[in-house]
Specification:
alpha/beta; eight-stranded mixed sheet; 25 helices; 44% helix; disordered N terminus
C-alpha cells in the first residue's frame, strides 16, 4: 500500500471579481515586472486574512484556477521572447506548442498560426481573423491593437482580456511586435488558451494508471475548469467528481490540484517536444564494438564494466552520467591509448546488465561500493577520476571512504548540491522538469521519467538528445559533430537501448542528486578541479558562482562556448588538465 500523506486544510478565493483582479495583475507583472508592487497590494488585500495562527496550522491557498493562470503567465515571463534576432516567426510558433498563438499584420487574414491555435480557435494559415471565438467588436479591437503594435505606433507589448463566446471564460492575449523579413510589419499574438494534444490523454493514462473518466477530469482541471463545470460537462454530481479527483491525487501521488496541474504541464512539455532534430548520423566506423566484462559485485549482484585506451597504462576511472555515456569520441579513445591511459568505465546499477541495488540501499553508498569493487577486482591501487554532472558526488565519496584510492578528481560540467528554488528556475526546460520534480515531487518522478523514456523511443534517441540539449547553443554545436553524436548514441545504449530501458535507475540517480550531499564536498581532501561551461543549461555560471562561496576548497575554471557536453567538446583540454591528477 502507498504511504498516505496527511492533507492540510486549504482555502480558495470566494468571489469571481477577486480572481479577475488578481489574474489581470498576474499578466501585467508577467509583461512588466516593475508592476509587481501593484500585484502585491491586490494579493495582500485578498490573502492576508488567511495567514492567522501558528505556521503548523496555516491554511494553504489552493485555488486551481489561479494556479492555472500563474502557470500560463510564466509562459510570458520566463519562456518566450517577443522578438528573435533571426526574425523567423515560424520557428517562434514551433516553440509554443501548448498555447494558441498566431502571427498577424492586423489585416483581415492571419499570416501563420501554430497547431494549438488551429485546435483551440479554429484558425488556419491565411484564414480569416473573424474565425476567433470572440464578439465582432472584440475582434475589431484586437485587429487595431495588432496593427498599432506591429507598426510601432503603440507599446511594444500590449495585453488584452477578451471573453470567449465558446467557454464564457476570459482569454488573455499578449500582442508583441516581431522583427521579421515580411512585406508588412507583423505582431505575435500569444494566448492563454491551452492545447490538449489528441494523444496526450493516452500518455497521462499510461503514466499514472488512470481510468479514461479520470483522465477527462485531469484534462478539465488542467484547462482551468472548476469542478462544478467539469461535473456539468460529464453529467455527474459535483460530489462524484470531487471523489474522483481525490482518487486522481492518490494515484498521481500529488497533494493538491495545483500540484497535479504543475506535474501534468511538465509532462506535456516533454510530450510536445517537436520531432525535428539532428540530421541522420553518418557511419564513421570510428568506434570499435564495446566489450563488456562481468563480475559479482557487493551482495552478489551482477556488475559490468568496459575498458579502452592502454591496457597497461595509468588507471583513470570514468563516471558515465545518468544518461549512461560510457563511450568517448573515437579520437579521444585513440588519444587515451597514445597517452598511456587505461580508462575503466563501470556500468552503474540498473544500467545495461548491471543489477539494480536492493530497495532501501543508499544510492551514493551503493554506487561508491560498486566502483571500489571494480577497481579492487582489477587490482588497481590508485586512479584518477573524470566525472560528469552530479557524478561528482560518487567521486567525492569514493575518495573519502577509500583513502588513497583516488589521486584526484576532474569534474566536467559538474553539478553541485543546490540551495535555492531560483537555482532550479535558471535551468533549461528539460533539466528543470526532471530535477525540480526530483527535489519537490520524488514520488511522481518515476512516472514522468518513464514517460520521457517512452517519448525518446518514439522520437529516436538522436532527435531526443538534440531537443534535450536545445537550451545551449554550445551543446547543439557539439552534438552536431559526427564523432560526438556517434559516441553519445552508442554509449547511451546502456541507458536506453533497443531492448532495455534504465528509467528506474535514471529515476534513482536524479532523486539522489537532488538530496543534500554538501558534506561530501567539505569532507573530501583529494585535489578537485571543476571545468564548467558558460552555456550549461543545467548549472549556469551564476549558480556555480553562488555555490563557490560555500565550497571555497573547490577549484573552478570556466570554459567559454561550452555547455553540459563540455567533456565531449573539450576532451583534448580535459586530458591535458588530467595530467596533474594522475597517480605517480
Amino acid at each position: 500500500m502507498k504511504e498516505r500523506v496527511p492533507q492540510t486544510e486549504t482555502a480558495q478565493f470566494a468571489e469571481r471579481d477577486q480572481k479577475a483582479e488578481i489574474v489581470d495583475r498576474l499578466y501585467e507583472v508577467a509583461l512588466d515586472p516593475i508592476r509587481l508592487e501593484e500585484l502585491l497590494e491586490v494579493w495582500e488585500g485578498r490573502v492576508a486574512q488567511l495567514r492567522v495562527g501558528a505556521l503548523e496550522g496555516a491554511i494553504a491557498l489552493d485555488d486551481p484556477e489561479i494556479d492555472a493562470h500563474v502557470s500560463r503567465a510564466r509562459v510570458f515571463l520566463d519562456r518566450f521572447e517577443a522578438t528573435r534576432e533571426d526574425g523567423g516567426y515560424r520557428s517562434i510558433l514551433d516553440d509554443i506548442p501548448r498555447y494558441a498563438a498566431f502571427v498577424s499584420d492586423g489585416g483581415a487574414r492571419i499570416i501563420a498560426c501554430n497547431r494549438a491555435a488551429g485546435l483551440a480557435f479554429g484558425l488556419a494559415e491565411a484564414g480569416p481573423l473573424t474565425t476567433l471565438p470572440f464578439e465582432p467588436e472584440d475582434v475589431e479591437t484586437l485587429r487595431g491593437v495588432i496593427h498599432k503594435v506591429a507598426s510601432g505606433r503603440a507599446e511594444k507589448v500590449v495585453t488584452l482580456r477578451i471573453r470567449s463566446r465558446v467557454t464564457g471564460s476570459p482569454v488573455i492575449l499578449r500582442v508583441s511586435a516581431l522583427e521579421a523579413d515580411a512585406p508588412k510589419p507583423l505582431a505575435l499574438v500569444l494566448s492563454t488558451e491551452l492545447f490538449w494534444p489528441d494523444d496526450f490523454s493516452e500518455t497521462v493514462q499510461e503514466a499514472f494508471g488512470l481510468t479514461p473518466a479520470e483522465v477527462e477530469i485531469v484534462r478539465g482541471i488542467t484547462l482551468g475548469l472548476p469542478l462544478k463545470d467539469i461535473a456539468e460537462q460529464r453529467g455527474r454530481s459535483v460530489e462524484t467528481v470531487r471523489t474522483q479527483a481525490r482518487s486522481i491525487l492518490a494515484k498521481t501521488e500529488t497533494h493538491s490540484q495545483s500540484e497535479l496541474v504543475r506535474v501534468v504541464l511538465g509532462l506535456m512539455d516533454v510530450a510536445l517536444i517537436p520531432t525535428a532534430g539532428a540530421e541522420p548520423l553518418p557511419d564513421t566506423g570510428g568506434l570499435a564494438p564495446v566489450v563488456f566484462r562481468q563480475m559479482r559485485g557487493p551482495g552478489g549482484r551482477r556488475l559490468d564494466w568496459t575498458e579502452f585506451g592502454d591496457a597497461k597504462g595509468v588507471p583513470v576511472l570514468f563516471m558515465h552520467l545518468d544518461y549512461g555515456l560510457i563511450r568517448w569520441p573515437a579520437a579521444a579513445q585513440l588519444a587515451a591509448r597514445q597517452q598511456g591511459l587505461r580508462v575503466i568505465v563501470p556500468v552503474r546499477a540498473g544500467y545495461g546488465r548491471s543489477d539494480l541495488h536492493g530497495k532501501g540501499t543508499d544510492h551514493i553508498t551503493g554506487c561508491t561500493e560498486d566502483y571500489a569493487a571494480v577497481l579492487e577486482h582489477l587490482g588497481v591501487a590508485q586512479a584518477a577520476v573524470i566525472c560528469l554532472g552530479a557524478d561528482l558526488r560518487f567521486a567525492l565519496n569514493l575518495a573519502i571512504t577509500r583513502p588513497g584510492l583516488i589521486s584526484g578528481i576532474l569534474g566536467c560540467a559538474a553539478q553541485l548540491p543546490l540551495r535555492t528554488a531560483a537555482q532550479y528556475e535558471r535551468m533549461d526546460k528539460w533539466q528543470r522538469f526532471i530535477l525540480a520534480n526530483a527535489r519537490y515531487a520524488p514520488k511522481v518522478l518515476p512516472f514522468l521519467v518513464q514517460a520521457g523514456f517512452s517519448l525518446a523511443r518514439r522520437l529516436g534517441k538522436e532527435k531526443f538528445f538534440a531537443q534535450v540539449n536545445g537550451g545551449s547553443p554550445a551543446d547543439m554545436e557539439t552534438f552536431a559533430r559526427p564523432e560526438v553524436r556517434e559516441a553519445m548514441l552508442a554509449g547511451s545504449e546502456v541507458c536506453l537501448g533497443a531492448r532495455l530501458s534504465a528509467h528506474e535507475a535514471f529515476t534513482r540517480e536524479c532523486i539522489s542528486s537532488e538530496r543534500d550531499w554538501s558534506a561530501l564536498v567539505t569532507a573530501c581532501h583529494v585535489p578537485v578541479l571543476l571545468l564548467q561551461g558558460d552555456q550549461d543549461p543545467q548549472t549556469p555560471v551564476q549558480t556555480i558562482r553562488e555555490l563557490m562561496g560555500e565550497f571555497a576548497q573547490l577549484r573552478v575554471e570556466f570554459v567559454p562556448q561550452a555547455g553540459q557536453l563540455l567533456f565531449f567538446k573539450e576532451w583534448p583540454q580535459v586530458l591535458a588538465r588530467l595530467a596533474e591528477f594522475l597517480p605517480r
